[in-house]
Each structure stands twice: as structure tokens, then as C-alpha cells.
Amino acid sequence: MKLSDSFTSTARRYDVMTGLNPGYRRELRRAARELSAQVHSRGDDGPLIWDLGCGTGLSTAALQEQLPEARLLGVDASEGMLALAQAKTWRPGTRFVLERAENLEHSLHEEIGEAPDGVFAAYLLRNVDEQDRTAVLATIRRRMAPGTPLVLHDYSVVESRGAQLTWTLVCFGVIIPLSVVMRAEPSLFTYLWRSVMNNDSTRTVLQRLRDAGFEGGRVFTARGWHRKILHTYTAVAGASRGEQ
């Protein structure tokens, strides 16, 4: 089963399970605040914000709360997740597109034609093949004007043995058993554990951002039990050779 299909099969239970995760939505809002502090609209219609890997719209809701004047474009590769996001109530100007981040540069969707004023991506890179992550970031960068802010929000535990232990205990003691009880897709949450254990270090992500053409990269960790497990990265699109 493709990863996007696994997310689709679990979509209806996803919001419930994340709602049981202490701090999950708080940290999404915190990351969205980081983006809102840096966004400057280039037009009269409010800033356009891309929410890449938007899933069921939890990250989109965090952005809507922090940027009430923004036009939001949620992009995701899972049809089931996106259908749930579209079914929720949104302010005017919020749209959703079924697309892979890898295809953004050549996407035929009209909604993706306008350059964003800010880009948010929660848990995106972890679900991209390791060898393609820098290329995906570079694709995103090429759709952004110089100085446009980017915020990534994702898990990484490879730099801390304590974080690895905590993550493993939470996954096998709580998340995976809960997925069985809720008749979700247990293999998806086993994948979740494994993908986080193997995800890039924070240093690697910062290097990928530089290699992809972003500047001023920095990272901070979450609070509570997510400390040293969940991280938020901020950077801005640098000038390409033709824009310098």
C-alpha cells in the first residue's frame, strides 16, 4: 500500500488520535506563530500561505488562527485526508489541492500558480524519501520570492538517546495499541515510529535548507514530552543567481 493510501485509510481516525496527543496542537499553533511573525503581504487581498502536507487541516486551522487575514492553500497527496480537510468550515479564501510536494514546480493546478507570501510544512520531509528531501526543498524555494519565510515542523530524535527512548515508549505503549483499538491502520503508526527514528538530524535539515537556497535557518525544540523530539525550523528564501 502506498503511503498516501495508508493516510487515506486512517483519515477519519487521525484527528481523534492527534487530539489525544498532549501538546500536539499547541506546538502546531506555536510553529504557526513563528510564520505569522514573519509574513508580509505583497497584495491587497491578504497574504497567501501555502500549507504543504496539510493532511486533515489541523495545521491549516493553526495557520487560520494565527493569520486570520491570510488566504490559505492546503496541499496534500492523500485524497482521504484532503477530503476531511475540505469538509471543515473555513474562512473565505481557503482552498485545498491534491498534489505531491515533489510536483509543485510543474503542477498544472491554477491555485499553485501564484507565489506564496509564506510556506508552512508540518511533518512533510519525514514522508519524503531521504534522497529526495533537498530536491523537494529546492522545488519549494523556486516557487518563493526572495525573503519569503518558510517554517518546517517535524520530528527528529537521532541526536538524543533519551528522545529515542521516549519516542519508542510512547509509540509502542500508547500510539500503536490505540490505533488497534480505534481500528485505524496499525502499520501506518509503526511506520510513524520508524520514520521518526530514521529521520534527519536537526543539523542535517539546516544543511538541506542551505543547500536548497534558504538563508538564516534556525531551529528550536518543542515543550513538554515533545522536548528534543519535535522541532520547528525557520528560514527565508535566499536570492537565486538571477535575482541577485
From TrEMBL:
Q: What are its GO biological-process terms?
A: methylation
The record, for SUPFAM superfamilies, names: S-adenosyl-L-methionine-dependent methyltransferases
- EC number(s) of the enzyme? 2.1.1.-
Q: Which domain of life is it from?
A: Bacteria
Among the GO molecular function terms of this UniProt record, one is: methyltransferase activity
Q: Which UniProt keywords apply?
A: Methyltransferase, Transferase
Entry protein name? Class I SAM-dependent methyltransferase
Taxonomy of origin reads: Bacteria, Bacillati, Actinomycetota, Actinomycetes, Micrococcales
